[in-house]
Amino acid sequence: MPPVKPMLAKPVARIPPGMQYEAKWDGFRAIVFRDGPEVELGSRTGKPLTRYFPELVAALRERVPERCVLDGEIVIAREGRLDFDALTERIHPADSRVRTLARRTPASFVAFDLLALDDASLLDVVLEDRRALLVRALQGVTAPVHVAPATRDVEVAGRWFEEYEGAGLDGVIAKPPGLPYRQDERAMFKIKHERTADVVVAGYRLHKSGPVVGSLLLGLYDDGGRLQHVGVSAAFAMKRRAELIEELAPLRMDDAAGHPWAAWSDEAAHTSARLPGAPSRWSGKKDLSWVPLRPERVAEVAYDHMENGARFRHTARFRRWRPDRAPHSCTYAQLEEPVRYDLAEILGRPPGDADVTAT
Q1: Is residue 24 annotated as part of the catalytic site, yes or no?
Q2: d(Cα 359, Cα 347) in Å, to the nearest integer?
Q3: Where is the DNA ligase ATP-dependent C-terminal domain (predicted)?
Q4: Do residue 165 and residue 207 come from a single domain?
Q5: Could you say which of 24, 175, 190, 239 is catalytic?
Q6: CB 3.0-4.6 Å disulfide test: which of 113, 221, 251, 343 passes with 71?
């Protein structure tokens, strides 16, 4: 019975040997519960996702065993790659909007673990046996439900790590084959891409604890010479947060007049430019105000990948200041573009393919 807390992964720098390997899907982690006509989708935090994906509920009711619990990822594909922005739009309070988006941007479910089948809980069953049961239980399943490809071959996993990014995937997950399912524990390993970029630091938000830096606001110049907000860097020790206030004080502006992001509080301005403080149902009543800085300081940050080529998908990690770089040289052109890879090539592979489930 829900809730079930999903097993988690901790980051490592390299793909470890002797594991079961899967792609790291960039979507919403979800636990699927089916008991006859009842289908529930639970999020990673335990909150229900069921009402937001009616098309998936119907598909799961038709395609998965009558009584089962599945662990997997809800994703949306557009033009052969994952689209996380389209996925976030699906979380909407209006039922009419939910139904419209279900038709316009239908979601898929990628199953990668089986936690219960009929009357049997499989939480204490080791991964390699759960995997065999999963493949058997979903044999012949059709879209929009899929079984995640998996392999025991570390060289295949290495190819996936390089190739699958072009389809919008996030890296590789390595799972110990003899591991029971451990709820809410970081018992698996995730290997993600890391690149660096030089960005303009054009503002900051204060930390919730007081007058120290909470996050740096980062920008890149587009082809038209406009500074676009591309993300934040926020992981600093408290001492460093206080130091940053002093370091950035000479660049602080009294207000946003004359700043490239001066129109940030105008909702209409967000339709034609990337600005901080974009209205979002995720932010709720969160204070989105920020302190503008003259866009004269350049920092090197590490990131994993870009969302739709426009912004950092996750929080960037501050590496160092770059006093040798001119702000206007910080453009999108410096970013590495992954080679395109059709998502259908991944989801279209049968789980029994020797190249995929090789042991």
Answers
A1: yes
A2: 20
A3: 211-325
A4: no
A5: 24
A6: 113
